[in-house]
Automatic annotation (TrEMBL), chains A, B:
Keywords: Magnesium, Metal-binding, Transferase. The lineage of its organism: Bacteria, Pseudomonadati, Pseudomonadota, Alphaproteobacteria, Rhodobacterales. CDD domains: Trans_IPPS_HT. Its cofactor is Mg(2+). This is Octaprenyl diphosphate synthase. Coiled coil: none annotated.
Amino acid sequence: MGMNENLSKPLDRLSAELAGDMDQVNALIRERMASRHAPRIPEVTAHLVEAGGKRLRPLLVLAAARLCGYSGANHVLLAAAVEFIHTATLLHDDVVDESRQRRGRPTANLLWDNKTSVLVGDYLFARSFQLMADTDSMRVMRILANASATIAEGEVLQLTAAQDISTSEETYIQIVRGKTAALFSAATEAGSVIAGADEAVQRALFDYGDALGIAFQIVDDLLDYGGMSSTIGKNIGDDFRERKLTLPVIKAIAAAGPDERAFWERTIGHGRQDEGDLETALSLLKRHDALKAARADAIDWAARAKAALGPAPDHPLRAILSDLADYVVSRIS
Amino acid sequence: MGMNENLSKPLDRLSAELAGDMDQVNALIRERMASRHAPRIPEVTAHLVEAGGKRLRPLLVLAAARLCGYSGANHVLLAAAVEFIHTATLLHDDVVDESRQRRGRPTANLLWDNKTSVLVGDYLFARSFQLMADTDSMRVMRILANASATIAEGEVLQLTAAQDISTSEETYIQIVRGKTAALFSAATEAGSVIAGADEAVQRALFDYGDALGIAFQIVDDLLDYGGMSSTIGKNIGDDFRERKLTLPVIKAIAAAGPDERAFWERTIGHGRQDEGDLETALSLLKRHDALKAARADAIDWAARAKAALGPAPDHPLRAILSDLADYVVSRIS
């Protein structure tokens, strides 16, 4: 991801602030990822746990709960449940995208097979609902069931919107809400609900998670085209090869003349891609300032995330969450 | 399935008895299977709804609730939730088994693709938890979350036990509990819970569903080898070709001499199958009375299902549920 050392601080500060809670979450994840009867399940889940990851979503649950003054133990259950939903969707996404690598390691569908990824994903999804049931909060259950439906809906929408060069920015945001923002906003909202926060604060934390998630995904999609520089430490062009209509491409298509439109139709619409096409795509994105415009949108969503925190209680975590929104877009500065 | 007309009566009686409730369940299923944002979802789910099916699992929910004197409306939500879980697992199973047909129609993974089946399955699973949240019963939520975990666990266990000719009858029952009985027993138990039945009755209905589900699956596995006759209206040998260790084969392997063991090792263990091997397998099953022995087990489980109903309230539905257990095994008489 090539983080700017200076700006990685908000996530580090969040992790440090919540280290005690997070240790409990990690222990619970390890405990509940096991299976009494099917030995393959712990093999696969251990592979996923070892891969690490930033644990951003459980941190958002914990932060929202603590920010709202929570002092119980249910936020740990909830954080683990959210991470299980996230992990289940990663397993299924890798099957859907036929991915071979994630976080620099071979994917489960490559190491085992698609069947295993589908079924272990289902297992983790069921385990997440068991964890939620343990919180004894029906509101939380409803929030995460709704988020799960939105996630699946967004993924199906992405499947049908892929390859369709008439996809609008509105549809793109809908897809992004599903694939990323729904779980961010469910994490922050549920954290506040479990803490018994009042309606306005619940709404504030939902809006924060929603805007943060959208900013996060726009940045991810920008990085897939190299971000703002051409020397980012990530393979570029995966979305182009998979013919995904992401924000930079949607903006470039909107500004395209007939020849350029024919290029997008051929490469993304019909999937006929030759050597040099990615370079052409990058030059078109540059010509129409599509990366710059997408970056401006990401920065705008990050600003909305920060503004949403207005009604949230005065607490050290509030400043960290605010800085986290800046940090998310700093990856493309 | 080639039902014996005379013995199909218990299921017909159950449907007739619960017709009013079932109309509501079907309406709710149609309503909740839709999607506001992703048009492909209703296409796929309509394909599944039109395929019909016996709706046995929602009928079990309704029957258990009514048997226990329930007069509210939550049993309809619960029955739809159970059918959604069932449909989601069928979608994922067909991906895992690479199936091309179900109920005489092409599968969703064939008509669309594996990606669509995985994601629409996830969507239905999320929708089922939304329905459960609407019942406002955390006990019911927990029962179905547990069942969902057991189902996924059973499927993974089946994946790893397939091709392993040392699979025991105990492991087989574990797999069957996961893939079939867990949702039957969750349906009947949750129906009784929602009706506020006392502990002994809840337990009775759990045990009934568990034993009924095991009998049901043993019968299904028998029918895959032609049942007790050789002229059943179903393609036989699918499980043999997929190298599944089902009860008849496990029994035949237990009785096998060295040559026969080598045959099973080659065909199921290593998957090297030639023309005539299915016929050989059938003759070995016959030689060791493996089909007869499996049938005796199915009848035994049906008897246990009937006996389990002991503590259940005196009600016309009780006799129908008891007859249903006989009906399930009548398919192989």
